[in-house]
Amino acid sequence: MEPSWFSGIVTVEDQRSYIKIETLRGENLAEIHSALSEVCDELTVDRSTVSSWASRFRGGRVSINDDPRLGRPKTSTDERNVKLVSDALEEDRRATCEELSETTGIPLMSIFRILTNDLKKGKISARWVPRCLTAEQKQKRLDISTLLKQRFDVEGQAFLYQLVTIDETWVRDFEPELKSQSNEWRGPSSPRPKKISTISIKDQIQNRPQLLEAGPIILQDNARAHIGNVVTEKLRQYGLEVLPHAPYIPDMSAPDFDLFPKLKQPMRGRRFPSLEELSAAVTRAIRQKKDGVLDGIVKLLTRWESVIEKQGDYIEGL
Question: Among 100, 113, 168, 194, whose Cα sits 20 to 30 Å from the Cα of 82?
Answer without folding.
Answer: 194
